[in-house]
Amino acid sequence: MRNLCLLGLAISLASPSVWAQTPTAPLPPKDVFVADLMKQMTEAEKIGQLRLISIATDMPRELIRKEIAAGHIGGTFNSVTRDENRPMQDAAMRSRLKIPMFFAYDVIHGHRTIFPISLGLAASWDMDAIAQSGRVSAQEASADGIDMTFAPMVDIARDPRWGRTSEGFGEDTYLVSRIADVMVKAYQGLSPALPGNIMASVKHFALYGAVEGGRDYNIVDMSPTRMFQDYLPPYHAAIKAGAGGVMVALNSINGVPATSNMWLMQDLLRKDWGFKGVAISDHGAIIELIKHGVAKDNREAAKLAIKAGIDMSMNDKAYGEELPGLLKSGEVPQSDLDNAVREVLGAKYDMGLFADPYLRIGKAEDDPADTNAENRLHRQEARDVARKSLVLLKNNNQTLPLKKQTRIALVGPLANSKVDMLGSWSGAGVPAQSVTVYEGLQKAMGQQGSVTYARGANISDDPKIAEYLNHINTGGIDVNNDPRPAQTMIDEAVKAAQHADVVVAVVGESRGMSHESSSRTSLDIPDSQRALISALKATGKPLVLVLMNGRPLSIEQEQAHADAVLETWFSGTEGGNAIADVLFGDYNPSGKLPITFPRSVGQIPSYYSHLSIGRPFTPGKPGNYTSQYFDAENSPLYPFGYGLSYTDFSLSPFTLSSKTLKPGGTLTASVTVKNTGKRDGETVVQLYLRDVTASMARPVKELKNFEKVMLKAGEQKVVRFTLSEDDLKFYNAQLKYAAEPGEFDVQIGLDSQNVQQNSFELL
Ligand code: NOJ
Question: Which one is the CATH code of 649-762: 3.40.50.300, 3.30.413.10, 3.40.50.1820, 2.60.40.10?
Answer without folding.
Answer: 2.60.40.10
